[in-house]
Amino acid sequence: MRSALKWSLALGALAVLLAAGCARKERGHNYIVRGQVVELPSPANGNLLQLHHEAVDDFVTRDGKVEGMDSMTMPFLVARNVPLRDIKPGDKIEVILHVDWQADRAVEITGLRKLAPDQKLDFRAAHPPGKP
Ligand SMILES: [Cu+2]
């Protein structure tokens, strides 16, 4: 009886720890976004990637609203493990944009792949779902 109680307490504690760990890992949202590189990160530009990105229709803003994001040229933080060696200005790329409004690095590119040079990009306004 005592050892059964100990086990259930231990399993309960484990469940709580796992839940906390999972919640932390799954926080935020990943968007797949395509665009054209304008400027690579450098100390001179604050280590930010300037990207002319396509619209992100389902982008959720800091206040939790699905406002979408129009296509625009804007600076992005890039995670340290994302390789940029083969990337140069003018390249078309697809990125994983990780957005976690509770994080220090709230908006960050965490993955990147090069697209074919003839890949057509559409720099239109956003069409957020549920809005005319
Ligand atoms: Cu933008």
What this model shows, in words?
- This protein is an alpha+beta fold and 132 residues long.
- The protein has a domain at 29-114: Copper binding periplasmic protein CusF (OB fold (Dihydrolipoamide Acetyltransferase, E2P)), CATH 2.40.50.320.
- 18% of the residues lie in helices and 30% in strands.
- The protein contains one helix and five strands.
- It has one helix at 2-25; strands at 29-39, 49-53, 72-78, 92-99, 107-114.
- It has a five-stranded mixed beta barrel with strand order 1-2-3-5-4.
- Strand 4 and strand 5 (107-114) form a beta hairpin.
- The longest helix has 24 residues, at 2-25.
- The structure holds copper (II) ion.
- Copper (II) ion is lined by residues 53, 69, 72, 74.
Bound molecules: copper (II) ion
Strand-pairing-aware structural class:
alpha+beta
CATH architecture descriptor of the domain at 29-114? Beta Barrel
Q: Any idea what the CATH superfamily of the domain at 29-114 is called?
A: Copper binding periplasmic protein CusF
Task: Jot down its keywords.
elongated; alpha+beta; OB fold (Dihydrolipoamide Acetyltransferase, E2P); five-stranded mixed barrel; 18% helix; 132 residues; binds copper (II) ion
